[in-house]
Amino acid sequence: MDAKHAAQCQCGEESEEEKLARIAQVVDDFKGQEGSLIQILHLAQAIYGYLPLHVQQLIAERLDIPLSEVYGVTTFYSFFSTKPRGEYTIRVCLGTACYVRGGAEIVKRLSQQLGVEVGGTTADRKFTLEVMRCIGACGLAPAVTVNDTVMRQVNPDKLNRILEMCS
Amino acid sequence: MVTLTINGKQVQAEPGMSVLEAAKANNIMIPHFCYLEDVHQVGACRICVVEIEGARSLQASCMVPVREGMVVRTNTARVKRARKVLYELMLSDHPRNCLSCLRNQNCEFQKLGELIQISEFRFEGEKSKSFVDLSSPSIVRDSSKCILCRRCITVCNEIQGVGVLNVQKRGFHSVIGPADELPLSSVNCTNCGQCVMVCPVGALLAKDVTERVWDAIFDPHKRVIVQTAPAVRVALGEEFGYPPGTIVTGKMATALREIGFDEIFDTNFAADLTIIEEGTEFLQRVTAALTGKNAVLPMITSCSPGWIKYIEHEFPQELDHLSTCKSPHMMLGALAKTYYAEKIGVDPKDIFVVSIMPCTAKKFEITRPEMFINGMPTVDAVLTTRELARMIRDAGIEFQELPDGRFDDPLGFSTGAADIFGTTGGVMEAALRTVYEIVTGREIPFERLEVTPVRGLSQVKEAAIKIEGTKPEYSYLEGVEVRVAVTSGLSGAKRLMKEVAEGTSPYHFIEVMGCPGGCIAGGGQPKPTTRSIREARMRAIYAEDAGKPKRKSHENPFVAKLYEEFLGEPLGHRSHELLHTHYVPRGRYNELEGTRIPIQTK
Ligand code: SF4
Ligand code: SF4
Ligand code: FES
Questions:
Q1: Of A44, A129, B232, B336, which residue is most buried, by most CB within 10 angstroms?
Q2: Is the pLDDT of residue B415 over 60?
Q3: CATH label of the domain that carries residue B12
Q4: What is the bridge-based pairing of β-strands A149-151 and B59-60?
């Protein structure tokens, strides 16, 4: 992300209109550049938190490309989300090693404890629960990431500690 | 020319050709699936794989250009094995309920299967998609049948420039459709049906309403009136084994009578009527412009409902450029339930009007509230050419054996000018024939009345016609050069509309048809519709015109009688009530403004 767009306040105090205006500005700045759509979506997600349909519509309209194309891109890449996300994204690795060493069990527990399905976000917008494919941390299995931090050899105890840490 | 070897045979090919095309040009058929000549070449299915010397892996022949000295083998054990596995994998994610599919026996996937031949279903697994979108009155989308060839995406985005369809999600979960699983009825789909024309399977279909029509025919209290569009008679024959471009007007009329329709009218009659109304409207606008009054020019034709929905979404500010004329079949429907109902003394509520159209957008058009008269639809059902063929077969009629029949009066007679409505350029040519003669009292100065500059399949065609020797009442038109443009396909429309929106359009009159080539290649026509088939149908249309004793709309005696007995004068009070309409500015994406209709899940 370039400095100009990232340096601005992202503390959540911004109004809906301000966010949309900022996204519109991003689109205008990147318009016409090769492969700019993905970059625009990244920045828009940073500004808005996620990419609901009306944000994608704004982007499509300003770029003069079909909404179906924009939506196709946001649903192709897993790092884009069309639903609101929690402050913390917890991802459980379900690669083979993590899976056999209890990854599936962790998913079940987290889902129960947080009261959300995989892919869901808690009502207080604190946590989003997701699963991922092997992240290459097989030696640390089962692995869980919280935002971008990797937690190794997670067991139920450790899980509780992680959740407490975040609260 | 490039020389290469295919299956041990030295062959020549033009540079830039793909291996698949080069093989085909030399009578070697490489099985293929997603590739569609002149339309789609993206390498989605890989059924067309071949061995190329020097390349380690098998190559998709539709994507690889020919090279000098290339050595290709299309039929080795390795190729055959790969092709078969690919086919079996596609099949494992397909519902295989062919007997209840409208495409049964007219399905490219079945044809491929015939060629590959499997004896068992080896791969069984989870099915990836399962919803049916029944929201649109024109198009049914059954995602469970989709084999992800992406042809519809190419057509909707690149050829039509609409972009409703694209790939959503990824991998096993990929679906082809609008954003956010929105139903077609709530996005900017124009209902043109061009996606239906290229879908190789039953994943995109025109909504079939033949049962409703049968019910009306079998209902003893209903008077069922049918009308047929000009493009149907030059294409219907293809459904019964005739070569493209065969004119089957007479057999079609007989078939309709045998099916049990009470009156067989001709949309062509209303096409002649449209020319009188629209020509008068055009003259009125030009007169206003030349005498310093307010007038919106260019005027743009309004008989293509796919085009109408397109402009309502994309250029909602420019709707006053549209002629206010309804499309011809809507005019005829309105007359059937008023003028004709009065004549025969039948309550219009007991009349059921069916339009046989080359078009899927007309299925939507009849549902538009502004088309209703006194709360009553003026056309009750629209059948495509393909649906008519289905009804003929269903009725057990041997089409080829039928004697020639004719249309019924008073709404069945038409001139050659009406015939050409079915092809791109035809409405313009018909209008020019009439307008020029009204203004000058002489025939339009083109040999045999053929306005050749507006004929043919180019995306945009132009003509400039100088008006000379006007009648005294039109003296202000003396020396005026009328500039016209004609386009078909919505990308062409977008091109011309950009100029209109910017105020730089140099034209007075523009004809737009939503489908590339015009109604002859509409979304309701027989499949396939290729370039050469378009050309053949177009030739047939012009042959119909050339063979008619009367070839100018204002010479239609039944139209004259209609004005005398009923309408009064062109653009008169009754015309406005029955033959003209208005348009609805829609949001660019529509879907975010209307209510979301939930997609029905299987
Ligand atoms: S009917 Fe026409 S506009 Fe609608 S999805 Fe198909 S090709 Fe696109
Ligand atoms: S809907 Fe039909 S044309 Fe479109 S990708 Fe699926 S199978 Fe191909
Ligand atoms: S026909 Fe070549 S990849 Fe589908």
A1: B232
A2: yes
A3: 3.10.20.740
A4: unpaired
SS3 label, residue B3: strand
Same domain as B187, residue B145: yes
Q: Write the pLDDT tens digit of every residue in B119-131.
A: 778 887 777 777 8
Last residue of a domain, one of B181, B206, B231: B206
Q: Which residues pair with B18 in a beta bridge?
A: B65
Would the CB of B22 count as within 6 Å of ligand 3? no
The residues facing A89 across adjacent strands are: A128
Single pTM value for the model: 0.90
Measure in Å the smallest separation between the Cα of B588 and chain A Cα atoms. Answer: 8
Instruction: Tell me, yes or no, whether B283 lies in a domain.
Output: no
Q: How far apart are CA B225 and CA B336, in angstroms?
A: 8
In chain A, where are the structural domains located?
3-76, 88-165
Q: Give the whole-angstrom CA distance, residue B256 versus residue B249.
A: 11
Q: Tokens 């008519």 sit at which residue?
A: B388
Same domain, yes or no: B101 and B19: yes
- CB contacts of A53 in chain B (<8 Å) are 179-180, 592
CB neighbour list of residue B286: distance below 8 Å, 6 or more residues apart: B295, B297, B477, B480, B482, B508
Query: Rounded CA gap, B219 and B213, in Å?
Result: 10
What is the spatial distance between Cα A164 and Cα A147, in angstroms, rounded to a whole number? 15
Q: Report the share of chain B in percent with pLDDT over 90.
A: 90
pLDDT in tens, B305-364: 999 999 999 999 999 999 999 999 999 999 999 999 999 999 999 999 999 999 999 999
Q: Tell me, yes or no, whether B155 and B91 share the same domain.
A: no
**What's the pLDDT at B118?**
81
Q: How confident is the model at residue B592 (pLDDT cuts 50, 70, 90)?
A: very low
Which ranges constitute the DSSP H helices of B12-58?
19-25
**Which of left, alpha, beta for B121 (phi over 0: left; psi -120 to 50: alpha)?**
beta
Same domain, B177 and B103: no
B420 contacts B558 by C-beta, under 8 angstroms: no
Q: How many domains does chain B have?
A: 2
**Across B525-553, average pLDDT:** 96
Taking only the tens place, the pLDDT of each residue in B452-472 is 999 999 999 999 999 999 999
Domain membership of residue B556 (yes or no) is no
With an 8 Å Cβ cutoff, are A82 and B180 in contact?
Answer: yes
Beta-sheet strands, E only, within B210-339: 223-228, 263-266, 299-300
User: With 70 as the cut, is the pLDDT of residue B593 above it?
Assistant: no
Q: How distant is the Cα of A101 from the closest Cα of chain B, in angstroms?
A: 27
Q: What tokens were used for A49?
A: 């938190």
pLDDT of residue B600: 43
Residues from chain A that touch B589, judged by Cβ atoms under 8 A, are 57, 60-61, 67
User: DSSP secondary-structure letter at B404?
Assistant: P
Neighbouring CB atoms inside 10 A of A99's CB total 18
Supply the mean pLDDT for chain B. Answer: 94
Is domain A88-165 classified as CATH 3.30.460.80? no
3-state secondary structure of B381: strand
Biggest CA-to-CA distance, chain B: 82
Task: Kindly tell me if the per-residue pLDDT of B599 is higher than 60.
Answer: no
Does B196 reside within a domain? Answer: yes
Question: Tokens standing for B486?
Answer: 């004609």
Q: In 3-state terms, what secondary structure has residue B104?
A: coil
Contacts of residue A67 in chain B, CB cutoff 8 Å? Answer: 163, 178-179, 187, 589
> And the tokens for B266?
């001709």
Q: What is the mean pLDDT of residues B512-532?
A: 97
Query: How high is the pLDDT of residue B257?
Result: 98
Domain-located, residue B79:
yes
Q: Convert the pLDDT of each residue in B28-50 to its tens digit.
A: 999 999 999 989 999 999 999 99
3-state secondary structure of B334: helix
Which domain range does residue B168 map to? 132-206
Q: Nearest chain A residue to B161 by CA: give it.
A: A66
